[in-house]
């Protein structure tokens, strides 16, 4: 999402929304007339969401969920459910095979809410510190993988990068989080640096377009990070550290987690 945000800053800031075409009403929340005629003043990311700040105090929030795509000046297709036309003749398409994504337009606010809770600090922000990580780990008596993916505690990390971060830090996804601060403080510090490093690497390679995801960037291009993943979707393959281990998969809260049982504990 950070890749898409940066591309939107380049392509969309300053454009004026002419009209919005909504083919799937369930994916749209708000009144189209409240944003038509408004100019995009800035683009920001909060967790896994993109936010447009518009003239007149309006705001638009995009959440792509698992299979959503935001494509600039692309060709409309079967799964194009929302079209935002700009006054200069360009357009933005919201495609989504599974139709779980959504767009919400509201008045500008200080924080973005999902359901009834606010997002935690962004994993790439200065608000995410080692001290903060130690605090949330110590109060979490469930598997550490679930904490990394909990947007209320720490925003911006998805399922793919959680597995990669834990491999980087040598921590098993099912390890109880509170035990780390008590018994393995050195792993907590390593985990903190791995969060930053893995996400920066993903940004460098333009995100991950894995076989079970629909991610493309703003230009409809696939990312390259999948070529550099160490454990995700590598079940039954040898560990890249050549430790003699074999990558395993387990399910936590309905999502697959990949890890090396020899390297991660």
Sum up the structure in keywords:
265 residues; N-terminal domain of MutM-like DNA repair proteins; 6 helices; elongated; 13 strands; five-stranded mixed β-sheet; 23% helix; single chain; alpha+beta; Helicase, Ruva Protein, domain 3
What can you see in these coordinates?
The protein folds into two domains: 2-116, N-terminal domain of MutM-like DNA repair proteins; 120-259, Helicase, Ruva Protein, domain 3 (Orthogonal Bundle). The chain has 265 residues and is of the alpha+beta class. The protein is built from six helices and 13 strands. Helix content is 23%, strand content 25%. The strands form four sheets. It has a five-stranded mixed sheet, with helices on one face. A four-stranded antiparallel sheet has the order 1-7-8-6, with no helix packed on it. Helix 2 (130-138) crosses helix 5 and helix 4 (159-169) packs across helix 6.
Please provide a brief summary of the model:
The chain has helices at 2-11, 130-138, 144-148, 159-169, 177-183, 185-204, and strands at residues 17-22, 28-29, 40-46, 49-54, 58-63, 68-72, 80-86, 91-96, 102-107, 113-114, 117-118, 248-252, 255-259. It is α+β, with helices and mostly antiparallel strands and 265 residues long. Strands 2-9-5-4-3 form a 5-stranded mixed beta sheet, with helices on one face. It has a 4-stranded antiparallel beta sheet with strand order 1-7-8-6, with no helix packed on it.
């Amino acid at each position: 999402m950070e890749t898409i945000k940066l591309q939107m800053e380049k392509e969309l800031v300053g454009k004026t929304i002419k009209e919005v075409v909504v083919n799937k009403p369930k994916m749209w929340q708000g009144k189209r007339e409240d944003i038509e005629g408004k100019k995009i003043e800035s683009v920001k990311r909060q967790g896994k969401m993109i936010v447009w700040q518009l003239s007149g105090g309006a705001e638009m929030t995009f959440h792509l969920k698992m299979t959503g795509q935001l494509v600039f000046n692309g060709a409309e297709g079967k799964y194009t459910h929302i079209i935002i036309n700009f006054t200069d003749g360009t357009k933005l398409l919201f495609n989504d095979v599974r139709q779980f994504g959504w767009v919400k337009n509201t008045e500008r606010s200080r924080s973005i809410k999902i359901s009834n809770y606010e997002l935690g600090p962004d994993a790439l922000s200065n608000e995410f510190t080692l001290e903060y990580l130690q605090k949330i780990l110590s109060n979490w008596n469930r598997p550490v993988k679930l904490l990394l993916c909990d947007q209320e505690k720490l925003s911006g990390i998805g399922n793919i990068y959680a597995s990669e971060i834990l491999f980087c830090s040598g921590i098993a996804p099912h390890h109880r989080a509170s035990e780390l601060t008590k018994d393995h403080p050195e792993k907590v510090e390593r985990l903190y640096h791995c969060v930053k490093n893995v996400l920066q690497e993903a940004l460098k390679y333009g995100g991950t377009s894995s076989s079970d995801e629909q991610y493309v960037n703003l230009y409809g291009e696939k990312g390259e990070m999948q070529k550099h993943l160490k454990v995700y979707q590598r079940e039954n393959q040898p560990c890249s550290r050549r430790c003699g281990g074999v990558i395993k998969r387990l399910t936590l809260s309905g999502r697959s987690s990949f890890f090396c049982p020899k390297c991660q504990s």
